[in-house]
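User: Hi! I have a protein structure encoded as tokens and I'd like to know what sequence might fold into it. I'm fairly new to this, so please keep things simple.
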């Protein structure tokens, strides 16, 4: 990945052949042209859980009219997210025998399982 600064508070992340942009809200000096980094973190977690749910639905030939919502619960004093409430919304006629398994596969999300990894930051001078 390559991270570059693209004016004001805009940051571009080059991942493989894709560009991902972030910005900051106007009240934090940004232009509000893209999600914030924390938005992308939450989207990463949600889409990861979502793909596990989707794979389960496909594997069991279940209807795909299911969706997920995420709600971060903030610790205001430390300005960190204490927990993230993920809700899997299923239709009324969803087969009850699959409900527990659907919750279990959503918990397999690789992003959620990696949140507690050590985060080392170092400097390297380029020639």
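Assistant: Happy to help. Inverse folding works backwards from shape to sequence: for each of the 127 positions I chose a residue that suits the local structure. Here it is:
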């Amino acid at each position: 990945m390559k991270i570059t600064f693209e004016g004001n508070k805009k940051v571009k992340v080059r991942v493989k052949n894709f560009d991902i942009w972030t910005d900051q809200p106007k009240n934090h000096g940004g232009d509000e042209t893209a999600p914030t980094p924390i938005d992308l973190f939450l989207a990463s977690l949600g889409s990861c859980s979502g793909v596990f749910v989707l794979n389960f639905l496909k594997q069991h030939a279940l209807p795909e009219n299911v969706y997920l919502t995420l709600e971060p619960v903030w610790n205001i004093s430390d300005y960190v997210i204490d927990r993230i409430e993920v809700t899997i919304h299923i239709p009324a006629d969803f087969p009850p025998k699959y409900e527990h398994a659907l919750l279990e596969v959503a918990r397999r999300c690789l992003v959620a399982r990696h949140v507690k990894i050590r985060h080392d930051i170092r400097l390297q001078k380029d020639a």
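A useful reference point when you look it over: The mean pLDDT is 91. Feel free to ask if any position seems puzzling.
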